[in-house]
Design goal:
The protein is an alpha+beta fold. The longest helix is centred in the C-terminal third of the chain and has 49 residues, at 239-287. The strands form 6 sheets. It has a 6-stranded mixed β-sheet, with no helix packed on it. A 4-stranded antiparallel β-sheet has the order 12-13-16-15, with no helix packed on it. It is 19% helix and 35% strand. Residues 16-140, 145-237 form the Ig-like domain.
Length: 341
């Protein structure tokens, strides 16, 4: 009985030494998924127990543990004797700082800025007094989904089927795609009747297209650290309207073709008349016995039929000269003097 009492007294005497002098107010190990470029606060608040009466000050160390890093521990930030020290070699010294100006006042939390994928790892906070308290935060940095592209495949005609497609070219896997109709009270993933998931993750198939399907659709691409969206406006065209457009286009094309044909015929006629005038002027020169020394400036073919007579006239640049005219009567060619000009 005496031995049992002595053991109890010894245990009571050692109890103060068994109590933790430093205690971190956090709920176990934290796991965080963060987006590249974001900032984050890694918490590490602590309290000192009354039993810790030692003269030494509080020491704080932040350590980064990554699978790629071997060798000594990477202490990238520390606090001792009211001095803050930054480590080297981790790439964090320009992007990390204590949240409090004096972390010795019961808060060893830090803030990381401009997170990079290479910052992924386990971050360990150690607070030292007579004993050591440790808190760990597992950080995974990933890229948000890149802005997706939205487009349609198929004719936007009432009664047909159309495929809405969405694809994001960047972002950490896994990527989740969700379509929603934003108009007419739809939202939160709701879709009209007649829509179903396509073969690809970002596909939405609409069968028997009708007016109820017309509107604005939004594709939302998400992963663990963020999301991105794109939108597409789905409008319908009537079959009759399409046929009318084809008919109008055919008529306009035919009119254009006829206009070009008319221009070609007119050009051929003008060319023929020009040659005929040149031939007539040549006949006029021959009829004067070769006395014409100047070329005809204007050669006009006047066709009229007074008493069945056709008259051709050559005009010359000099009004004093006379030419000969050809007058046809009943198919007989006669040479007569030209009238005064």
């Amino acid at each position: 009985m005496a031995g049992h009492g002595a053991g109890l007294l010894l245990l009571l005497g050692l109890m103060p030494a068994l109590l933790l002098a430093v205690r971190i107010n956090s709920k176990g190990r934290e796991v965080l998924y963060l987006a590249k470029g974001d900032s984050v606060k890694l918490g590490c608040p602590y309290v000192l127990e009354p039993e810790d009466n030692g003269p030494q000050g509080v020491g704080i160390e932040w350590i980064q543990i990554t699978p790629e890093r071997t060798g000594p521990e990477n202490v990238f930030l520390s606090y001792h004797d009211h001095h803050v020290n930054y480590g080297s070699g981790s790439g964090l010294q320009d992007r990390v700082a204590f949240v409090q100006n004096d972390p010795g006042q019961h808060d060893a939390s830090i803030r990381l800025a401009d997170l990079q994928v290479s910052d992924t790892g386990t971050y360990q906070c150690r607070v030292k007094k007579n004993t050591v308290a440790v808190h760990e935060v597992i950080v995974t940095v990933q890229e948000k989904p890149a802005t997706p592209q939205c487009w349609t495949e198929g004719e936007l005609i009432e009664g047909s089927s159309v495929l809405l497609r969405c694809y994001s070219r960047g972002g950490a896997s896994p990527l989740a795609y969700q379509w929603a109709k934003l108009a007419d009270g739809y939202g939160g993933g709701r879709l009209p009747h007649g829509t179903l998931q396509g073969r690809a993750p970002g596909d939405l198939l609409i069968r028997s297209l009708s007016e109820v399907h017309a509107g604005v659709y939004q594709c939302r691409v998400t992963n663990r650290v963020g999301y991105a969206v794109c939108q597409i406006n789905l409008g319908l065209s009537q079959r009759g309207g399409r046929q009318a457009g084809i008919i109008v286009g055919s008529i306009l094309g035919s009119l254009l073709l006829l206009s070009l044909l008319g221009l070609l015929i007119w050009a051929l006629i003008c060319r023929y008349r020009r040659k005929e005038c040149q031939r007539t002027c040549s006949d006029c020169r021959s009829s004067t016995g070769g006395t014409m020394t100047r070329a005809c400036n204007v050669c006009a073919h006047h066709s009229y039929s007074p008493h069945g007579i056709s008259y051709m006239q050559c005009q010359h640049g000099d009004g004093d000269e006379r030419a000969a005219a050809l007058m046809c009567n009943d198919g007989i060619r006669h040479q007569v003097a030209c009238p005064a000009l």
